[in-house]
Amino acid sequence: MTKEKTFKLVATAASGLEALVGKELRDLGISCEVENGKALFEGTMETIATANLWLRTADRIKIIVGEFDAFSFDELFEKVKALPWEDYLPMDAEFPVAGKSIKSKLYSTPDCQSITKKAIVNRLREVYHRPATVPLAETGAFFQLEVALLKDHVTVTIDTTGPSLFKRGYRIEKGGAPLKENMAAALVALTNWRKDRPFYDPVCGSGTICIEAALIGHNIAPGFNREFVCETWDWFDSAVFEKVRKEADEKADYDIKLDIMGSDINGKMIEIAKANAEEIGLGDSITFKQLALRDFTTEKEYGVMVANPPYGERLGEEESVRKLYKEMGEVFRPLKTWSKYILTSDLTFEQYYGARATKKRKLYNGALRTDLFQYWGERPPRKPREE
C-alpha cells in the first residue's frame, strides 16, 4: 500500500465533544464533517498519524473499509466479502470483530459479528489460496474490526489507534473518580483560557485537568508519549510516524512560562498529581498544593478556573458535596475578573453555588449526563492603540 493512498477516516468522540474534534481537525488543516459522536474526513497514512498524535478530545481514529445498506444476513455476508480485505489484512492477521446494531432489521449484534467475520475469512481464504479445512492462523499483527449498523446502514471499520486516545501514557496513578484525559482537554478547550493567563483547578485530584492545560500551553502533541496499533502493521510506513513525531517536537514550545496551579484537600492526591506531571516532563510547569477550597485566595486577575468536583452520586455524599458547592460560590464570587467552569451531574448546582451560570453546556462524562456551568469573568481592559 502506498503512502499516498487515500483512506476514508472517522474520529470517534464522546457525545457533546464532536464539534471540538471537528475544530481540532480543521486547525490541523484537515477538512471534515461533524456528525453525532464522530467527525468524518479523508487522508493518507500521514493524516492517520497526525490525527492520532494531535487530537486531544477524540477517542479513536478508524479506517472506514466500506459502507452499504443491508436488510438480510445474506446481503451483509456478500457485501462484506466484496470489500478488499487483502489490502489491509495479511494472511496471519488477528482480527476480532466488535459490533453494534441500532434501529436495524439485523438487530442481533452477535450474528452480525459472526457473519462479518465469516465473510472476511472466506475472502482471505480465496485471495491467499487457503483450504477451507485449515483455519486461518491469526498469529500476526492485531486489527480491531467493527461492524456497526444504524437504521440498516452498515459501516465496517478498522481501528488505527489501539488503546483509546485518552490513554496518554502519563497517568501512573489515578484517584477515586478520575476524569479521562480527553474529557479534561475538552474542558480546557471550552474555556477562554490563553497561555499568558493564570489557570487553576481547586479540586485537582490526580492533576489531569492541569496537565492537559500544560500540554495545550506548551503545544505538546498529546499522543507524543505513546505508540499506536497501526505502527505494528507491516504495510504502514514507519517513516510516516517518524516524520510526524519530529515535526510535533519542533512545534512544541518548551520554554514558555505557564501559570498553572492545582490544589486538593487530600495530600495523597497531590503526591499522585505531582508524580503524573513529572512522568510527562511537566513538573516545572504546574504548581500542586494541598489546600482546602475554602482557604483559596489570590491577588491574580483574569484567570480561568476549571473544576470537576465530586458529584454526590454515591449514597450519603449529597450533603457534603452541596456544602462544597456553597463554599465554591463564597470563595469564587469575589473573583470578578476570573472565569469559572464547573462540571457536575447535579442539575441543582446553581442553587447551592448561589448564582446563575452565564451559560451551561451538556456533556457526557462516560455514560453520565453532566453540565458544564460557566461563569464568565470581566474582560481585561483594552490596551490603548499606539499612535
Could you please describe the fold and organization of this structure?
The protein is an alpha/beta fold. It folds into two domains: about 5-160, VC0802-like (2-Layer Sandwich); about 180-220 and about 250-375, Rossmann fold (3-Layer(aba) Sandwich). The protein has helices at about 20-25, 45-55, 75-80, 110-130, 180-190, 210-215, 240-250, 265-280, 320-330, 350-355; strands at about 5-10, 30-35, 40-45, 60-70, 95-100, 145-150, 155-160, 200, 260-265, 285-290, 305, 340-345, 360-365, 370-375. The strands form two sheets. Strands 2-3-1-4-7-6-5 form a seven-stranded mixed sheet. Strands 10-9-8-11-12-14-13 form a seven-stranded mixed sheet, covered by helices on one side. α2 (about 45-55) crosses α7 and α3 runs parallel beside α4 (about 110-130). It is elongated. The model has no long low-confidence stretch (mean pLDDT about 95). InterPro entries: DNA_methylase_N6_adenine_CS (IPR002052), RlmKL-like_Mtase (IPR000241), RlmKL-like_Mtase_CS (IPR053943), RlmL_1st (IPR054170), SAM-dependent_MTases_sf (IPR029063), THUMP_dom (IPR004114). Keywords: Methyltransferase, RNA-binding, Transferase.
